[in-house]
């Protein structure tokens, strides 16, 4: 509870110091008086905090937070995007350490490694140029430091760990061996052939996490030793759907994997659905790397629907489940599902209770199922 009080105090301080015009009655200058800057610049500050527990004996409940500052500057034919991020430290015996990928917002910045724990820190998570918007308003090209998992396998329903599902298996396809924040480039045109388009991605396979958060190593370009991540995706877009079919490959020495994937969003009158499927293979030599294991098959189904809560924006109820098969040294099937309800408390304040059910392989007891309840709070300024 002490950790939870600490997080709530930090949220309160952010509101006081970053929105004094609301606390003390000052009015924010209207957009018309702020000049042309509002037409070409966008700034958003977001704070996400979570308190997560489990019924697994010996595992501590965990209070974590992450702070995101996004700045976007538009010019005539291109733009610049900067993302500053800070996250707290995962706890030594907390939920996110014992249940890998149960909290996709935990430890997202790559600090120093202490034992098996990567400490939180402040970092530049993205800094890239973009431009040439297509008919759907998407940037035609992006180049720089980017979060590679956002460049392909996209979804409007299951792709954001701060406002949608926390479970990593419901944010991206588990078979795709994404590098961390890495030097990347993307070309895309989602309306190249009327309703059929494409995405092409080329990235270093060694991002910030693979370089222990070291920017000098990140900027050292040597594809022969670092490997590359490459992907090509065909995208079919319609009024109520978007479907992507893609191929990817990661040539890093400790990964050496490739695969195909499918993602489908369908927007219906009673709710929205996302379906993902993935199939992957590894080229690792198991004779030399006997402990190697990789996700070889994946399928997930996610659903969300809006619930009217009166004068506020509609609340969102989401349900998702995923199955991941692992091959190699540890052959097993990971099953998980999650239910959440995102309740708007104010214009830029959201409270999201959720619960996950996940299986875990215990050396002494075999496969066991556990519950992970979570309370999440989002504040946007």
Q: SSE order in H/E notation?
A: HHHEEEHEEEEEEHHEEEEEEEEE
> How far is it from the N-terminal to the C-terminal residue, by CA?
26 Å
Q: Can you count the helices?
A: 6
Residue runs with pLDDT of under 50 for 5 or more positions: 1-38
Report the sheet-strand fraction.
over 45%
Mean pLDDT: 82
Strand order of the largest sheet: 1-2-3-6-7-8-9-10-11-12-13-14-15-16-17-18
Major pleated sheet: 16 strands, antiparallel, barrel
Helix content: under 10%
Rg, Å, rounded: 21 Å
Describe this structure in words.
The chain is mainly beta. The chain has six helices and 18 strands. The strands form two sheets. Strands 1-2-3-6-7-8-9-10-11-12-13-14-15-16-17-18 form a 16-stranded antiparallel β-barrel. A two-stranded antiparallel ribbon has the order 4-5. A hairpin with a 6-residue loop joins strand 11 (241-250) and strand 12 (257-267). The longest helix is centred in the N-terminal third of the chain and has 17 residues, at 2-18. It is globular, with a radius of gyration of 21 Å. It starts with a helix and ends with a strand.
């Amino acid at each position: 509870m002490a950790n939870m009080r600490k997080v709530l105090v930090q949220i309160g301080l952010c509101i006081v110091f970053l929105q004094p015009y609301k606390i003390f009655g000052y009015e924010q200058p209207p957009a018309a008086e702020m000049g042309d800057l509002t037409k070409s610049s966008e700034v958003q500050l977001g704070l996400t905090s979570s308190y997560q527990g489990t019924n697994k004996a010996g595992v501590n409940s965990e209070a974590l937070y992450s702070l995101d500052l996004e700045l976007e500057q538009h010019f005539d034919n291109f733009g610049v995007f900067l993302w500053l991020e800070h996250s707290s430290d995962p706890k030594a015996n907390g939920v996110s350490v014992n249940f890998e990928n149960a909290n996709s917002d935990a430890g997202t910045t790559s600090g120093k490694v202490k034992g098996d724990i990567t400490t939180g820190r402040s970092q530049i998570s993205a800094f890239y140029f973009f431009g040439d918007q297509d008919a759907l308003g998407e940037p035609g090209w992006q180049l720089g430091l980017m979060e590679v998992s956002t460049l392909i396998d996209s979804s409007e329903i299951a792709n954001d760990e701060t406002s949608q599902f926390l479970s990593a298996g419901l944010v991206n396809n588990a078979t795709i061996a994404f590098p961390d924040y890495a030097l990347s480039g993307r070309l895309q045109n989602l309306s190249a052939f009327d309703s059929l388009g494409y995405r092409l991605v080329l990235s270093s396979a060694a991002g910030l996490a693979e370089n222990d958060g070291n920017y000098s190593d990140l900027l050292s370009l040597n594809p022969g030793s670092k490997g590359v991540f490459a992907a090509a995706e065909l995208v079919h877009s319609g009024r109520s759907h978007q479907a992507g079919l893609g191929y990817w490959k990661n040539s890093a020495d400790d990964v050496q994997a490739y695969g195909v994937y499918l993602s489908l969003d369908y927007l219906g009158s009673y709710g929205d659905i996302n379906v993902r499927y993935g199939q992957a293979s590894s080229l690792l030599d198991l004779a030399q790397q006997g402990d190697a294991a990789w996700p070889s098959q994946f399928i997930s189904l996610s659903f969300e629907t809006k619930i009217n809560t009166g004068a506020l924006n509609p609340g969102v109820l989401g349900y998702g489940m995923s199955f991941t098969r692992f091959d190699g040294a540890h052959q097993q099937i990971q099953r998980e599902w999650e239910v959440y309800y995102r309740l708007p408390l104010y214009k830029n304040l959201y409270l999201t209770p959720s619960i996950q059910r996940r299986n875990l392989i215990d050396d002494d007891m075999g496969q066991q199922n556990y519950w992970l309840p979570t309370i999440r709070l989002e504040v946007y300024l």
